[in-house]
User: Fold these one by one.
Assistant:
Number 1:
Amino acid sequence: DVAYVNGRFMDLADATVPVEDRGLQFGDGVYEVIRTYRGRPFQVEAHLARLAQSAAAIGLALPEAARQFPALIDEGIRRAAYPDCKVYLQITRGVAPRDHAFPGRVAPTVIMTFRLMRPLDPALAANGVAVVMADDIRWGRCDIKSVNLLANVLARQRALEAGAFEALLVRGGRITEGAVSNVMVVRQGGLRTAPVGPEILAGVTRHLVLELARKEGLPIKEEAVTRDELRSADEVFLTGTTVEVLPVVTVDAMVIGSGCPGPISRLLQQRFQEVAL
Ligand code: PDD
């Protein structure tokens, strides 16, 4: 595996950051996950635009190297030489003696890893997955893709321990998103998903899938479904870089629709594959 740390490519096994990196001590950083299809990074401009937004939102000035990100990502992908690659890119506020307030004049730490992208088990995409609901205990700026992921970590772990694939996060009775994905619901012939705003990450895949749905003429309402509305959902699916379009067939013990991936999930899954592959 290949890594990039502050200007240099190296073997991932040799890549290190100092103990006083603020990413490690405060989660004071932002990140992106980008994958390739057929060796080419997918939606890279959208990911880098969101990275710039996340950095700006935490008052982190992008380093010089940011202008070369597209070229560096390409180079890492080439060096890793996997059929498909999962690119992790993280910028932290840098290395400084531990103090909550911003340090003066330190260079941000830029790291990237290039690992084999294992395709999702085709059986999951074909048959759908089970999910559970979990309280959304995250902070008030979930639109920032920050490396503070403890609430997401706990929710996903709980889901896996319950034999489920993902946790649907519930805030004030409404489904915001998943621990690692956005959530879409088909109900009364239309598509529903939480609006972009501080309660969700504006997923790159979410945006693309909404575009595809619009092209199909599906009515779309960007309004979070309530826990109650979920009961009468015809279809539920997840979107995200790592999950693509992934049908959900049970939520906790409740069966969604017929218990099989529904026609709109399948259609958008297919349209997504046509764009990605
Ligand atoms: N996560 N919501 C959350 C909380 C996420 O962490 C992610 C992605 C998404 C989907 O966003 P996108 O379509 O841009 O990948 C939604 C990445 C993959 C991760 O943390 O591994």
Number 2:
Amino acid sequence: PRRVLSGIQASGALHLGNYLGALKRFTQLQDGGAPCFLFVADLHAVTVWQDPTLLTAQTREIAAAYLASGLDPAKSVIFPQSAVRAHSELAWIFNCVARLGWLDRMTQFKEKSGKHKERSSVGLYTYPVLQAADILLYKATEVPTGEDQKQHLELTRDIAAKFNNDFGVPGFFPLPEPLTQGPAPRVMSLRDGAAKMSKSDPSDQSRINLTDDADAIVAKVRKARTDPEPLPDTVEALDARPEAKNLVTIYAALADISREQVLAEFGGQGFGAFKPALADLAVASMAPVTAEMRRLMADPAEIDLVLKNGADRAAAIADPVVDEVKKIVGFWRA
Ligand code: ATP
Ligand code: MG
């Protein structure tokens, strides 16, 4: 059976990249009839320091974003990762399946640890192993994410295949399909066309947050880094111009049209004309989501109920799977 699974880290303010690369896709998949499991990745968030009080608030904020972008708790299971113990249990077993050499190749660890590898948490290093546990615990068939997670999803498949093979249980864990081909699978920073838009980027100017008001969005788009040339007429000509390509891609994804259609309208025009149109579109597209998030966060009771019910439903599926894994591995059971 089909099962979609994905998560978003409770590591700070959600941004347009999360919305276009992840949230919008989840809603499309749910509305297409796929059963969806969507968690708030709080275990992943603490791979870098999180203030405990903020972590709770950020967890609720991600849940609010799920609901505000159209996910329906009657159809989709929305839960905090740490509330389902099986994630941590399976992650340990997978830590003993995954090879150091595999993790050494993960580019996200290199990017996030930067020059201070020896001062990074061990959790940041084994993060993709926990991610494999998140996915395989539910025997997910499809995993929608942004393009930045592609390498981690390949690792998940490697871990599944090695577990099935080492323990002689062919097909026990199905190999999940990565879905990284959305309308905007890699939204770039507004300050740097070579870096992806990220929650953890220290510059708030680099991203449009889901909680930004209209004035902030307009100001950030106006100041977004660009080259001085007018927009080209063809999509191919965008390849050499990462900042222009990013803004055109964002426009297309927000308007649900192709980049060709965007250039048919704006090709030959300067950013002086394009940026205000993009800002208006961003404000109009985000405003309903933002307003609903604010409403939900004003009284967390509704969110907390969704998270509690989601955790119970998720555990009902995950706990028997981890029990079976323990049996396969040979752990003592009464
Ligand atoms: P952090 O900097 O803390 O890692 P993040 O912005 O990368 O935060 P995540 O919680 O790690 O956000 O990712 C949540 C989802 O959003 C994932 O599916 C990820 O692939 C997607 N995503 C993150 N950044 C982008 C982006 N710039 N463009 C498209 N999708 C993105
Ligand atoms: Mg990330």
